[in-house]
Amino acid sequence: MAGFDEKTTREGGTPETRGKMIAVCSAKGGIGRTILSVNLAVSLSKRNHSVAVLDGDFQFGDVSLAMDLQHTFTIKEAMDGIGSLDEHRLEDYLSVHGSGVRVLPAPERPEYADILTKEAVSKMADFLLMKHDFVVCDTGAGLNEQTLNLVEKADEILVVATLEMAAMKNTKLLLETLDILGLRDKVRVVLNRANMESVIKAEDGARILGEEAPIYIPNDFQTCSRSLNMGSPFVIANAKSDIAKAVFKMAELIASNKAGEGIGKKKENPLSLFPWKRKKGGISK
Ligand SMILES: Nc1ncnc2c1ncn2[C@@H]1O[C@H](COP(=O)(O)OP(=O)(O)OP(=O)(O)O)[C@@H](O)[C@H]1O
Ligand SMILES: [Mg+2]
């Protein structure tokens, strides 16, 4: 794409200079993982970081589409050459967006997802982390084995939720599962479409999910659908919109946190999802 400077990747990559991996996941599909992954990646790149996106929605990933990339290779071809792959060779499989963000696209066909082993994906994520400051990883909905592998590797897990009842219920379950797996400390909850019409208000959503300070992303369907359908990230095409400002803020928050530092604050006694179960004063166990 013309009009943007292509940033170069970082050279080398010792463990001390390993980049930071951000996994973007959600309990349900269609909740905004891809749009937020793409716009977060571009926002980080605008802050002069070198950024790669790993499309970890291996069956139906659409990061390439969301960034209007005509890719030559996908992770499937990288997998075919895994024996001789290293951090330098992997770069040849990436597609470069005009913003400088490099993308390892998901396979062309859903059945190719089956040939990707967790070990190979981990290796590729490590290679990307050696060359980039940030690796943003979009994932498939829910917690399948591949997504679990990616969230375990990640330094930060963004759990994206909306205020619909089913999304709340399933996000609560996802957070509980991540807690059981010992991963809850890496989680930041992102309440997407936070000001949409809903029975559950944004503050209640945060309390139900037991998150003291979630990241709020406003509802803006026009900007989002244009961004996805034109393959033109809104943080470039519509940088002054409220939603772009919210994503810039999220990028700032993430960039200012060093890998592994304490992340989202968990509430001790989350609010029950069901009003009839709430105790007086609003909190129930
Ligand atoms: N903040 C928002 N405001 C309005 N619409 C939004 C917002 N975030 C996402 N959307 C819309 O929600 C839909 C789903 O977005 P997206 O594809 O990013 O979700 P996803 O979680 O990646 O979905 P999938 O499970 O299909 O991969 C799109 O139509 C998008 O435009
Ligand atoms: Mg998606």
TrEMBL record:
Question: What's any GO biological process attached to this entry?
Answer: negative regulation of cell division
AAA domain segment(s): 20-181
Q: Which GO terms describe its molecular function?
A: ATP binding; ATP hydrolysis activity
One annotated Gene Ontology cellular component of this protein: cytoplasmic side of plasma membrane
Record InterPro entries: AAA_dom (IPR025669), P-loop_NTPase (IPR027417), ParA/MinD_ATPase (IPR050625)
Source taxon at top rank? Bacteria
Q: Cite the PANTHER family for this sequence.
A: SEPTUM SITE-DETERMINING PROTEIN MIND HOMOLOG, CHLOROPLASTIC-RELATED (PTHR43384), SLR0110 PROTEIN (PTHR43384:SF13)
Q: Mind telling me what this protein is named?
A: MinD/ParA family protein
Organism field: Neobacillus piezotolerans
